[in-house]
Amino acid sequence: MDLKSLIRTIPDFPEEGILFRDITTLLKEPEGLYEAVEQLRDSVKDLSYDVIVGPESRGFIFGVPLAYAEHKGFVPVRKPGKLPAAVYSQEYALEYGVSRLEMHQDALKPGQKVLIVDDLLATGGTAQAIATMVEKAGCQVAGFTFLIELADLGGREKLKNYSVRSVLSY
């Protein structure tokens, strides 16, 4: 199945000059959603990992069904103030400032191998922040998988010390 044909491109969103890859058009199609999860699953079939970590919100969309299909646990990474227990917190750079992500300190067991799943790899800031928290927890990043990679934005280079897979590249 051609997943790109199910992804809508919206010019000048959220600001002028940006081509936004809208996955909502893929998500509403049962076969498209199924195929996206299956292709993500296939992209990491050679990796050994114990648990999946994904950021809100679209990392949840793909990480949870992948974890379910592979009989693995899923650990959510959230925006600040959304998790009720002690957290690891990591800032990362955005084009227009900084943001922060959090993960429960007791979500991972030291020594676990972690697969990080998200919908999009752009500059790699979010992904690197998650990897930093995973490593703070005493775990190893087994790899990353993304539905979409925006290759020209250099995110893969930021993650050059890790195994990085993507299903689609723009």
Provide the domain count. 1
Q: What are the low-pLDDT stretches, counting only 5+ consecutive residues below 50?
A: none
- Write the CATH fold name: Rossmann fold
Shape: globular
Query: What structural class should be given to the helix and strand makeup?
Result: alpha/beta
Q: How many beta-strand elements?
A: 9
For the record, give the distance between the C-alpha atoms at the N and C termini, rounded to a whole number.
17 Å
Q: How much helix, percentage-wise, in residues?
A: 25-40%
Question: Can you walk me through this structure?
Answer:
With 170 residues, the protein is an alpha/beta fold. The chain has one domain: Rossmann fold. Helix content is 28%, strand content 35%. It contains 5 helices and 9 strands; from the N terminus they run ββααβαββββαβαβ. It has helices at residues 24-27, 30-43, 58-70, 125-136, 155-158, and strands spanning 8-11, 19-22, 51-55, 73-77, 87-94, 97-104, 113-121, 140-149, 164-169. It has a 5-stranded parallel sheet with strand order 4-3-7-8-9, sandwiched between helices. Strands 1-2 form a two-stranded antiparallel ribbon. Strands 5-6 form a two-stranded antiparallel sheet. A hairpin with a 7-residue loop joins strand 1 and strand 2. Helix 2 (30-43) packs across helix 3 (58-70). The two termini are 17 Å apart.
